[in-house]
Amino acid sequence: MRATQFPARAAGPAERLTGFIAHLRMNGVTAGPAETADALDALSHVAATDPDEARLALKTLLAGDGDGWVRFDALFDAYWFNAGRERAGTARADHVQRQAARPTLWQPHFDEAGGDGGDGDAAPGGEGEAEGIDGRLIATRTANLTRRDLRELMDEDTLRAAERAAERLARALVDRRSRRQRVDRRGRRLAMRRILRASLRRGGEPIDLYRQHRPDRPVRIVALCDVSGSMTVYARVFLAFVKGLVGADLKTEAFLFHTRLMRVTEALRDTDTLRAAGRLSLMAEGFGGGTDIAGAIRGWCDAYAPAGAGRRTVVLILSDGCCTAAPGEMASALARARRKARRIVWLNPLAGWRDYAPVQAGIAAALPHLDAHLPANTVEALAALEPELARL
Amino acid sequence: MSFRDLQARLAETAYLAADDLAMALHLALSLGRPLLLEGPAGVGKTEVAKALSTIEAAPLIRLQCYEGLDASHAIYEWNYQRQLLALRAEGGDADAVFSEKFLLKRPLLEAITAERAPVLLIDEIDRADEEFEAYLLEILAENQITVPELGTIQGRVRPMVVLTSNGTRDLSDALRRRCLFAYVPYPEREAEIAILRRRMPGLEGRLAAQIVGVVQALRREELEKKPGIAEMLDWAAALSGLGINDLSDDPAAVQASLVCLLKTAADRGAMPAEVLARIAGKAA
C-alpha cells in the first residue's frame, strides 16, 4: 500500500479533507463545505490515525446511498493511497516504501495530542516534487478518446429527434391516472355518495360537501438498451432515445447491456455533458461485443427489480434479439421479469424490415411473454410508437 | 469510547454488528446525527434500534411508516373533541383551546419532548410518501417541530434516531444529507454462524454450520424472496424443535420445515427435495 504524497501547499488535515471532498464531488457524490466540517468533526471522534477507522467513519458520513457505499472504498483509496497511479520515476521508490505502513498525512497532526492542525510544512510528503500528484483519480486518456466520440453523437439532428421522440413517448407512458375516484379536499368533482351519506346526519340536507378526484398513478419506465456488436448501427440513436426517456421523468431507470448489465441512469441524467460522457464511456467498455439478453434481464430481476419494480413498471427492451443464450433461458428470464413488471415491450430494429419474421430462436421464444413487439429501425418509427404505447 | 467498545456492548445484547455498522452507530451517537440503514429485508436493521435502546437503557419509540402516513399520525394532532367540550363548558375563548393541553402527541413529538432521550426508530421510511420526508427534515436537522397554531416546539432532548429503508424507492437527497448512512448486507458465512450460535447457544456446532451453509446457498439461488437472518433463526428454532441433529437425518422433515425459509409458492416449487438434498450435502 502506498500513500499519496501531498504537495507542500496543502496545509493540514482540513485542507486535505477539503481536497478529498472535492475529489468525491468530481466523482458524483453530493458533498459540500458542510460535509467537510462534519467529516473533520467525525474524525475527532475516532482514532483518525488508523486508516481503517478513518475510512469507516468517512464512509458512513459521505457514502449517502447503496451505490456510493460500494464505490466509496475505491474513491478513498484513489485519493489517500494513490491507487491506480504508478509513478513513472523510480528515484523516490525507497521514500515511498518507508511510509507505506500507513498514510503519512495523518501522522504529524493527529499524533499530537492538541492537534493544532495548522502547519502543513511538517508533512513528510511535502517536497516540491509532488506538484502533479495530489491524489486525484483522473483517467485522462480514456476520457478524452470517448468524449470526442460522444460529442459527435450529441451534434446530430437525428439524435436530437430521437431524444424528442423519447420524451413524447415517455409522457404518453407515464401520465396515467387511476380510474377510481378518491376523496380529496381540493378535488374537482363532488363525491355524491359521501355527501349523501353525510347528509343523513343533517336531516337529509347536503351541508357537508366532499370532493373527489382521480389520483395520479404514474408509470415507471425501465429501459434496457442493447449495445452489443449486432446493434452498433442503432446503438447511438437508441442511446439518445434512452437519454430522452431518462430526461423526461425522474423515476425512469436506464440500463445498457451487452454481456453484462450496467445501470446508466445517473450518467445519463448528469447535467454536465462532458462528465456524463466520461462516466458513460468508463462504463461502456465492451460496447460492440457479444450479447446475453437473457442474462441481462435476469440481472435486472435480481439486482434492481426487488427494489424498484412493481405493478406500475413498464420494461422497454431495445434489442435485435440476437442472443447467445439458449432460447429456453430467454423464455424463463422474460417470464420472471413478467412477474415483476406490468408490461414488457420489445422495440426491435429488425422488425421494421420489410420481410422480417420473428424466426430467430431467441425472439421466437420471447414473443409469448411480450406485451408488444414493435419495430424501431428509424427515428420516425420510434416517434410513431406513441399511440401504440399509449394503449398499453 | 471507541467503536470497538460499542461493538462489544452490542454483542452483550446478542447483536453482532459488523465493523462498518458499529462505526456508523458510534458516530451517530457521538455526533448526535440520525442514522439511515439500508439493506435487504431481514438483515437486522430494525434490531439495531432495539439493541441500541437496550444498551443505552433508553425507551424505544417506533414509528412504522406506510403509504399515506401523514403528520396527524406521526407528529401531532389536535384533540377536537376536548376542544369542543372546552369551548362549550368555558365559553367563547377560541385561542385558549390551541394550547399544549389539547395537543395529542404522536411518536415524533413524543420523542423530542420526552424526559430522557429515547431511541426513535422510523421503520421503512421508503414506504411513506415523499411529503412525509419533508416533515421529517425539520425534526431531524433542528430537533424541533413547528405547530402553526402554537409556534415552534423546541426539543428537550435529542433522540437517537434510526431510519430504515428497503430501497423500494429512492429517498430524497435532502433527507440523505442529514443522515449518516450504513448499508447492511447479508452477513458472511462466519459472521452468520456467530450470530446463530449467539442467539441459540444450545445448538450443536455442526448443525449450526449446516444451517448457515444451506441458507447461504439458498441466497445464491434465484429466489423471489431471499431468506434473511430472521428466517434463518426461525428455521434453526424449528429444526431444534423437531429434534433434528443433522440435516441428512430426516429429509422429509427438513423439507417440511422449509416453510420457515421460503415464503412464496414459486420459491417452494423451485426447491424440490432433490435440490435441497444437494445443497444440504454441499453444506455439510
Give a topology summary.
The complex is a heterodimer of chains A (392) and B (284).
Chain A: H1 12-26, H2 33-43, H3 51-62, H4 66-80, H5 93-98, H6 107-110, H7 140-155, H8 157-174, E1 182-183, E2 189-190, H9 192-199, E3 211-213, E4 220-226, H10 232-248, E5 253-257, E6 261-263, H11 265-269, H12 273-283, H13 293-303, H14 305-308, E7 313-318, H15 327-340, E8 343-348, H16 361-366, E9 372-375, H17 379-383, H18 386-391
Chain B: H1 3-12, H2 19-31, E1 35-38, H3 45-55, E2 60-64, H4 71-74, E3 76-78, H5 80-90, E4 103-105, H6 107-112, E5 119-123, H7 130-142, E6 144-147, E7 151-154, E8 160-165, H8 173-178, E9 180-183, H9 189-199, H10 205-220, H11 229-241, H12 251-257, H13 265-270, H14 273-283
Parallel strand pairs in B: 1-8, 1-9, 2-5, 5-8
Antiparallel strand pairs in B: 3-4, 6-7
Structural features:
heterodimer, A: 392 residues, alpha/beta, six-stranded mixed beta sheet, 18 helices, 9 strands, B: 284 residues, two-stranded antiparallel sheet, 14 helices, 49% helix, elongated
Mean pLDDT of chain B equals: 87
Oligomer: heterodimer
The topology string of helices and strands of chain B comes to HHEHEHEHEHEHEEEHEHHHHHH
Question: Beta-strand level of the residues of chain B, as a percent range?
Answer: 5-15%
Mean pLDDT of chain A: 71
Number of strands of chain B: 9
Alpha-beta content class of chain A: alpha/beta
Write out the strand line-up for the largest beta sheet of chain B, numbering strands in chain order: 2-5-8-1-9
Global geometry of chain B: elongated
Unreliable stretches of chain B (pLDDT < 50, length at least 5) are: none
Q: How large is the share of residues in beta strands of chain A?
A: 5-15%
User: How would a crystallographer describe the biggest sheet of chain B?
Assistant: 5 strands, parallel
From the N-terminal CA to the C-terminal CA of chain B, the straight-line distance is 41 Å
Separation, N- and C-terminal Cα atoms of chain A: 56 Å
Q: Give the tally of β-strands of chain A.
A: 9
